[in-house]
Amino acid sequence: MKQRIRILVVEDEPDQRQLVSGLLRRAGYEIDAAASVSEAKTLLEKGDVDIVFSDWKLEGEDGLQLLEHVQLDYPETGFILATGHGSIAHAVQSVRAGADDYLVKPYQKDALLFALERVCRARLLIRENKALEQALTEREYLVDLIGHSACMQTLFNKIERLASTRATILISGESGTGKELAARALHQLSNRKDQPFVAVNCAAIPESLAEAEFFGTEKGAFTGSTKLNIGKFEFAQGGTLFLDEVGEMPLLLQVKLLRLLQEGVLTRIGGNKEIKVDIRLVAATNRDLQEEVNAGRFREDLFYRLNVVPIEMPPLRDRKEDIPALTKHFSQVACRRHEVENVRFTPTVLKSLTQYSWPGNVRELGNVIERMVLMSENGEASETEIPQIQGSDTAPQFELPLAGFNWDVHERDCLQQAMNMCHGNRTQAAKKLDLAYKAFLYRLEKHQLI
Questions:
Q1: How far apart are CA 146 and CA 339, in angstroms?
Q2: Do 254 and 298 meet the contact criterion of CB atoms below 8 Å apart?
Q3: 419 in helix, strand or coil?
């Protein structure tokens, strides 16, 4: 057998149960045995049963009742019924009830093993087909096939071209645009898809623990270190390491990362041995790393090493034609998750959704759609859950104070707030104020904010 198959033998006659169980163990199967339907149900609850082989006639409930239970609660488990009567009616009834096969007592050893092998192959094929369907569904979602806008099709084509390469890729874009989604797509469409995909949020790891988290530690490396700890780079061996918010990585760690990328080796903390690693690195940031380099917060040599092939994730406001399709997708996901009936989104509601600017991008849209599903009435989504007009493309109304105010101070304050909201990213801050980039830079210089 290429893989271990667990069979549950259900037989109320002890000698027969022991005989069949022994025969199947010698054939390489793992065996659980039960004397009744109730005992079989208990064993099924523990999981890992691939096939049930049950006698028809049992004390109390019969094998057909057990089959009905398995069909209802364990639909992926195979089932073979054995009957001593040789009744055609029993055979027809068992197959109609969902049994994969049946045997007539007294049956031959070869007949039993052949039936089990056939059911194993059939069940394995079903599982492989389901896995393939799931993989195809995931692929469509990962490469955002939901988005049919021109910018998303360009992104889709770029990911497909780059997936099979070893190139290091830097994904940039605003928060919520799906940078990790793109990274997973690059992994899933590559020849590394069967190896690990390890995602790390650099901003979520305390600086004091970052080196140990990435490179691992040897036993006894420091006080309290009682065992070997494998770092993220080693966990990703042969696969893909995704460094999210790479702009938040401490400078000391940036030096070590640069060496790893150049030489392909690492050394655990407390160790002397160089360990060769084979990983495909994908990094992501919502900051302008070139500006971080200019400000001395990010190493220039590492920036060029990461930015071999840049990918820019478009914000949702630049692909509003995708909102209806995304809305349908998110609503279906929410309905399945919360086990509610499908919710209808009227043309009026869809129009309102497309009029909003979505500063939180696809992530915000997904959250709003889930809320709309949960708060829907009579199966129809309401506009009341859509963010109000102050978050939309229409500028909020402003009433000038009667006493007037200092415009330069106000302008400087708006510029500073935009820079703070965008973590110093000038491109995003300019968009936040709906200013051309050069006009925005002029105002920054005017107020000495550069």
A1: 23
A2: yes
A3: helix
Question: Stretch 325-348: mean pLDDT, rounded?
Answer: 91
Interatomic CA distance for residues 159 and 66, integer angstroms? 49
Over the stretch 341-360, which tens digit does the pLDDT of each residue have?
899 999 989 999 998 989 99
The C-alpha torsion from 429 through 433 and 436 to 441, rounded to 10°, is -50
The per-residue pLDDT for 397 is 55
Quote the CA–CA distance of 344 and 434 in Å, as a whole number: 34
CB 246 within 8 A of CB 283: yes
pLDDT score at 138: 47
Contacts of 311 (CB under 8 A, 6+ apart): 155, 158, 159, 162, 169, 170, 171, 172, 182
Strand partners, 169: 282, 309
User: What is the pLDDT, as a whole number, of residue 171?
Assistant: 96
**Residue 169 neighbours by CB distance under 10 Å:** 25
Do the Cβ atoms of 53 and 80 come closer than 8 Å? yes
pLDDT band at 391 (very low <50, low <70, confident <90, very high): very low
Q: Phi first, then psi: give them for residue 79, nearest 5 degrees.
A: -145, 130
Question: b or e along 119-156 (b: 16 or more beta carbons within 10 Å of the residue's beta carbon)?
Answer: bbeebeeeeeeeeeeeeeeeeebbbbbbbebebbeebb
Cβ distance 345 to 327 under 8 Å?
A: yes
Task: Decide: helix, strand or coil at residue 399.
Answer: coil
DSSP strands (E only) in 286-336 = 309-312
- DSSP states along 229-256: B--HHHHTTTSEEEEETGGGS-HHHHHH
Q: What is the pTM of this model?
A: 0.57
Could you tell me the end-to-end alpha-carbon distance of the chain, in angstroms, rounded to an integer?
69
pLDDT in tens, 174-190: 999 999 999 999 998 89
